[in-house]
Amino acid sequence: xxxxxxxxxxxxxxxxxxxxxxxxxxxxxxxxxxxxxxxxxxxxxxxxxxxxxxxxxxxxxxxxxxxxxxxxxxxxxxxxxxxxxxxxxxxxxxxxxxxxxxxxxxxxxxxxxxxxxxxxxxxxxxxxxxxxxxxxxxxxxxxxxxxxxxxxxxxxxxxxxxxxxx
Length: 166
Hints:
- By secondary structure, the protein is of the alpha/beta class.
- It is 23% helix and 27% strand.
- The chain contains four helices and nine strands.
- The chain has helices at residues 49-59, 88-94, 130-142, 158-165; strands at 9-12, 28-32, 67-71, 73-78, 83-86, 102-104, 111-116, 122-128, 147-151.
- The protein has a five-stranded antiparallel β-sheet. It has a four-stranded parallel β-sheet with strand order 1-2-3-9, covered by helices on one side.
- A hairpin with a 6-residue loop joins strand 6 and strand 7 (111-116).
- Helix 1 (49-59) runs parallel beside helix 3.
- The two termini are 33 Å apart.
């Protein structure tokens, strides 16, 4: 790759055996700090401070200056058992008009709320907004990880995009 002026980025899931393998120097390693909750679970945040801290400590076994990947958006859990990914914009569109129905989780900084759809089915939505992403990036930096990747950028609110630009 060097001879061709190319770089290699290796993306690892949070469960990757970072402690068990010898990782070669050279590639940039990205560890996904998300999907703590998702299609495999009940409602909750994509990540929280504890997950990010734990992964950052585990990442110390990787050579080089590496990247923590955090996820925008979230999930919509229906009382029928269906789970759907949502972007931040989609979550905002689903949020009840009365914003007093939403709250921010202390352990993750994520926003969550309940709503009832047009068929009368109750849903719970958790998602990351500008405040959440800023917090996760700060926690990562506190743990010595200074580069962040965001999955995925489509569907972010204008205020989140503006915050990331700054």
